[in-house]
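Can't paste images in this forum, so I'm doing it all in text. The chain is below; anyone willing to post the predicted structure tokens underneath?
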Amino acid sequence: MLLTYENKGMDFIVEWKNPTHFPPHLHQAVELVYVTKGTLEMGVGQELYHMEKGDFAVVFPNVIHHYQVFTEGENKALYMLVSPKIIPNYMEELQHYCPKAPVISKENLHVDVTKAIKSLVDIDKDNDRLIQAYVQMIFAHVFSEMAMIEKEAIGGDDIIYKAVEYVAKNFREKITLDKMAFELGVSKYVLSRLFAKTFHCNFATYVNGIRLNYATAMMKSTSDPITQICYDCGFESQRTFNRVFKERYRMTPREYRFKDLLRATRN
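Text version of the structure:
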């Protein structure tokens, strides 16, 4: 998932994904999730929510969340990342509140929301006014049909939350476990155990994973050179970027971008 937004044509992103386990993370965007096949488990704060085909969920900015898949077979979901500036009328609410229960079942999902989601999939991504209109429609229903609570109520003081937030804000810079531990006021050994137990990887692997998520989003939504994307993501060298990228995606960054462009052309 994308972890930050810049003025690079990234105010609205639509991605079809086959859901897999994705560790706790947060970002500055609003995330909309619509399951189109199979099931998906979405964790928000300390709660885990089961989603089936036709269910819809919304995650507000800077709210920790993660995904898991327990069912076999094909699972598919549509993810939409929306910059809050697209919906300025809700800016204050997005900053201070979040849904008490972020999932709306298919049976309770208003037909206008379903229509808006389907329209946003096929819309011309340069048509800012139409995008804003459909997003506004979705959020008109979100705020009228979902009970809201203050963000502090979902565990903002938890060390996991603080660790995820720190990485989300600093992954584009040079960060180390020692520096992070010092700035959070905890032992680096506590943080090391946290990443191993909660995220099932070490600190470096988690940070590189966040950087790769940002890199692939940049490849899909901008025409920036891959070399520039590499450094924008926080990697110190093209060689390291290529190695880590290939370990995860089994292809080079250039092959990934070409494959994505080919798929977009066919669609």
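Residues 12-153 form a domain with the Jelly Rolls fold (CATH 2.60.120.810). Residues 96 and 150 are 6 Å apart (CA to CA).
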